[in-house]
């Protein structure tokens, strides 16, 4: 009987070797749900911090996970999953076995999404959460009843208005910043914080089935527009990507009844 020897081209893709480790896969699964601090990840996976940090380092080397200092406490680091890159690598891995296994982009079929209420929060409610509110409403064709609020509301930032109009054709000039206190009693299915600082002070929303954190840097600084406007574009693009993946999740699994355990 002839024995077949696998050549070097038959080695598993590097992505599978990296993500296939059981603990690294668990970390990826947790970060797919929400951006997390290291101590949160250690509690969720039940492993020592030095072991979790080691495997997070490997995932960062493979550019599956990104990290940045918390805007609330510079001693902490938030980790997040690069969903677009992971999706592309998964698709490529499937395609390496057979072209028919290459995945398609996540579905954004608004008809498949049950009505859902989502609150986006950031400290000033002047840029990130306002852009997220508009994108969620538009990209879902209204299936998402989106709202936004902040812990210390400020005037709507002109660059947020500009980037939504120029890059996405959305007019948010009529959206008004509001305080979290004004919406704390309202029923939301999802509460998504976009700011490390607001996550620390956000009041509880007992009816929310999902409480999620997307750790996005504040694009608004005192620097000239020539410096800050590209940051607004980057923030809007990141929000658009994240909202797109959220829509795919909602289409696959409609939200729980408010008040259900998460």
Write the layout of secondary structure elements.
Blueprint: H1 14-19, H2 22-33, E1 36-37, H3 38-45, H4 49-61, E2 65-69, E3 77-81, H5 83-97, E4 116-121, H6 128-139, E5 144-149, H7 158-168, E6 190-193, H8 196-201, E7 210-213, H9 225-252
Parallel strand pairs: 4-5, 4-6, 6-7
Antiparallel strand pairs: 1-3, 2-3
Describe the structure.
The chain is α/β, with parallel strands linked by helices. It folds into 2 domains: 17-101, Orthogonal Bundle (Arc Repressor Mutant, subunit A); 110-252, Response regulator (Rossmann fold, 3-Layer(aba) Sandwich). 42% of the residues lie in helices and 12% in strands. It is built from 9 helices and 7 strands; from the N terminus they run H-H-E-H-H-E-E-H-E-H-E-H-E-H-E-H. The chain has helices at 14-19, 22-33, 38-45, 49-61, 83-97, 128-139, 158-168, 196-201, 225-252; strands at residues 36-37, 65-69, 77-81, 116-121, 144-149, 190-193, 210-213. The strands form 2 sheets. A 4-stranded parallel sheet has the order 5-4-6-7. Strands 1-3-2 form a 3-stranded antiparallel sheet. Helix 6 links the parallel strand 4 and strand 5. Mean pLDDT is 89; it is low at 1-7 and 257-262.
């Amino acid at each position: 009987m002839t024995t077949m020897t696998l050549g070097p081209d038959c080695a598993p893709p590097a992505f599978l070797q990296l993500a296939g480790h059981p603990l690294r896969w668990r970390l990826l699964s947790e970060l797919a749900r929400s951006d997390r601090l290291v101590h949160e990840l250690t509690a969720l996976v039940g492993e020592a911090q030095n072991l979790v940090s080691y495997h997070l380092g490997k995932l960062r080397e493979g550019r599956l996970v990104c990290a940045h200092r918390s805007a609330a406490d510079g001693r902490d680091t938030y980790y997040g999953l690069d969903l677009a890159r992971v999706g592309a690598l998964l698709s490529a891995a499937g395609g390496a076995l057979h072209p028919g296994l290459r995945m398609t982009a996540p579905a954004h079929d608004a008809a498949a999404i049950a009505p859902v209420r989502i609150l986006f929060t950031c400290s000033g409610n002047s840029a990130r959460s306002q852009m997220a509110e508009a994108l969620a409403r538009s990209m879902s064709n209204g299936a998402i009843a989106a709202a936004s609020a902040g812990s210390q509301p400020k005037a709507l930032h002109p660059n947020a208005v500009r980037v939504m109009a120029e890059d996405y054709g959305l007019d948010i000039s009529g959206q008004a910043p509001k305080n979290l206190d004004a919406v704390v009693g309202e029923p939301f299915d999802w509460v998504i914080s976009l700011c490390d600082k607001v996550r620390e002070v956000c009041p509880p929303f007992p009816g929310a089935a999902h409480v999620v954190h997307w750790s996005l840097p504040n694009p608004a600084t005192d620097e000239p527009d020539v410096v800050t406007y590209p940051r607004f574009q980057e923030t809007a693009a990141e929000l658009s990507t994240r909202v797109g993946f959220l829509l795919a999740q909602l289409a696959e699994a409609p939200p729980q009844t408010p008040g259900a355990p998460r």
